[in-house]
Fold:
Amino acid sequence: MREFLIFQSLWAMQDHCGQCALPLEAQLEKIAAAGFDGITDHFWEASHAARLHAAAKAFGLQIEGQLFPRTVDDLAAALDVAARHGCHHLTLQADVRPRTLRQAIALVEGWQRLAEEVDFPILLETHRYRLSNDLLFTLDLLEEMPDLKLLADLSHYVVGREMPEPVAAEDDDYIHRILRHSWGFHGRVSNGEQVQVPLSFAQHRSWLERFLGWWRYGIEDWLARPNSPASLSFTCELGPPPYAITGADGRDVSDRWEEALMLKQWMREVWRDCHVPGGG
Structure:
């Protein structure tokens, strides 16, 4: 039976000052009590990874680890830590900005070789100011490396390319191509001007429906793949300022925790609507 796992980002637990009043263990207790299946957090520093692993295990949560490698050796060192504990998967925000496909391919091939040495997936995240910054560059990379597995954060391509709504047919096709290579998702809703808009505001409803439709497409494509694993993850990643829109007082204009719960519910419904045989 294939499962759909919804994670909560620990970065998203921070307030408008970049802090969280709850200690790590209390954060995970709150997340588990709200019905999430796991958490997303940095996963390369030895003492933090050990603490995170112990707390997640205590509350029955899985871990999506995040890394920000610049070199092949950066990933090798991080895997020494991550492999001690294991995780659902690692996502790489590749902190490099190559000018040519040749440079990008050399790095990614090195990371792929390392990925073969561990028993959890390693996914390349689509993200601004990273190797995958540009949508068209990433699509060209996929043409050269069709087996490359992505972690799709579509918000960056919408705001990065200043996409209009309704989305042009060409742009919709580009996003679908990304989704056909995606093995997990980070969830927030952007528009052509802001990377993260409040989900509960009526003026953003058309963009919310757009993203829900894209995520549905990605789930359906994942389910149709003959080699898809036992579970698919979706992280609610409603980040603090400056991702979150703020008022004159510097505070969020919406309640991100409540919106994460809303997003979790919507995505459970999307999963159910995909008519999974024996569904979860």
Summary: The chain has a mean pLDDT of 96. The chain has nine helices and eight strands.
